[in-house]
Amino acid sequence: MSSFWSAWVIVFTLPVIIGCFWLLTISLKNYVDVPEGEVTDHIVDGIQEVNNPLPRWWTYMFYLTIIWSVFYLALYPGLGNYKGLLNWTSSNQGIKSLAESRAAVELSKTDGSHVQFDRELEHASEKYGPIFQQFAQRDVIDLAYDDAAIKIGQRLFLQNCSLCHGSDARGQTGYPNLTDNDWLYGGSPDKIKETLMFGRKAAMPSWYDALGGDQGVKEMTAYVLSLSGRQVDQVDATAGKAKFALCAACHGMDGKGSLAHNLPFGAPNLTDNTWLYGGSARAVTESITLGRFGQMPAFEKTLGADKVHILTAYVYRLANPEKPAE
Which residue spans traverse the membrane (predicted)? Predict the structure, then answer.
């Protein structure tokens, strides 16, 4: 908050408190020549005023609220940029990155600041940490069919993953469906955990110039669509096939994607009808022309290994609702 607005808050807060005290005090004094309990000559809308004092309980309560407000404003932040005697704050403000957040947490520990959110996280970690550790000792597949673990995993998913993948985990354009068995990097427990721990960064470059402009993109689009059995212009598809070597390094010459060829790129299978960014001719044209740059964040440092382990079990269960036969 700027100095101007800080001063503005102070100037308007303190006079209000002082004004309430003054108004209460003068209201206790009798300024009319009429005994208490008798009517006065003040009449408004046919209602005649009686000279009655404020109830004592109400008066004492009002004074207590004024005294409490003074102590509150002295102890806690509330008067502009004044931080209060307790050096308390609800959370670290102005944080723009995970690194800044960690630095702010360490700083609050060294300078004696009381950051409420940090304290609540510490309390939650002390209370629930042993529970997460206990679940993390078990095998992912075993954990995936434990109802108690799945309830925890679902909460972790809703808090951290549903923004992109949806609360039902069925994804949306640019964010994969986690309830099927179509995986770009593999759907085994180890691969899912690796994805959650370290994140994924995929990048398909623009091929517009390399393909020779609009006509080359049109031909490649026709060939890519033909791989999944679409009806296309065969002349364009044949011309596109001749240039597909540009794409084969990631998708393979057969177009089945990097997973089918044990490659680490996360390039999708072009021969099925599962499309991350849409399978229409327009969407495929856009992908080839502009490229695609998807990124999933790493949860190793935000959730920790134990929570990621439980979350792995939940994600595995989404795509494998039935427990495999032993």
Answer: 7-28, 57-76
**63: buried, middle or exposed (CB in 10 Å: 19+, 13-18, 0-12)?**
middle
Three-state DSSP state, 294: strand
- 201 forms beta bridges with 295
Domain ranges of the chain: 3-88, 132-319
Report whether 114 belongs to an annotated binding site.
no
The pLDDT tens digits for 135-182 are 999 999 999 999 999 999 999 999 999 999 999 999 999 999 999 989
Give residue for tokens 């950051």.
115
Instruction: Report how far residue 92's alpha carbon sits from residue 132's, in angstroms, rounded to the nearest whole number.
Output: 26
**251 annotated as belonging to a binding site for a ligand:** yes
Q: What is the mean pLDDT of the chain?
A: 91
DSSP-derived 3-state class of residue 21 = helix
Is 250 known as a binding-site position?
yes
Q: Is 204 annotated as a binding residue?
A: yes
20 known member of a binding site: no
161 assigned binding-site residue: yes
CB 59 within 8 A of CB 28: yes
3-class SS at 220? helix
Alpha-carbon distance of 13 to 318, in angstroms, equals 54
Q: In this structure, which topology does domain 132-319 adopt according to CATH? A: Cytochrome Bc1 Complex; Chain D, domain 2 (1.10.760)
Q: What is the mean pLDDT of residues 101-111?
A: 85
184 close to 324: Cβ distance less than 8 angstroms: no
The pair of structure tokens assigned to 141 is 């597949």
Q: Are 175 and 277 in contact (CB under 8 A)?
A: no
